# Entry
Amino acid sequence: MRKFKVNLSGKTYFAEVEKVADYLYRVKVNDSVIEVEVEEAKIRSLKKDERVSKALDLGEKVVKAVIPGNITKILVSEEDAVRAGDTLLILEAMKMENEIVAPSSGKVKEIRVEEGQRVETGDVLVVLE
# Structure
């Protein structure tokens, strides 16, 4: 949750903003709470879910972030053959490096992140075929 001090028309308000989903935020100002949907982010989220469903329908394996963090290193390239347990990339979260490994053997079809990118829980990192 992030806290903000907002000055509006000469009045000061204190706001707390909590991310609920990729596109949904809960905003508390004084004692009032509202939920705010960010339409553009909602559309992106729905398209992402659609791509994940399509990949699963094709029998592909989708590797997702299990925690939010930053991608610090990508250790594979598209078209690389990997075995179950091979490290695909490093995700830094809470000052710890987490190895993201291949859940099964296969070929890297698509890498959907870049080094330095921030990811949220559930974001697709790599697609294997």
User: Anything to note?
Assistant: The longest helix spans residues 39-57. The chain has two domains: 2-37, 47-128. Residues 2-37 form one domain.
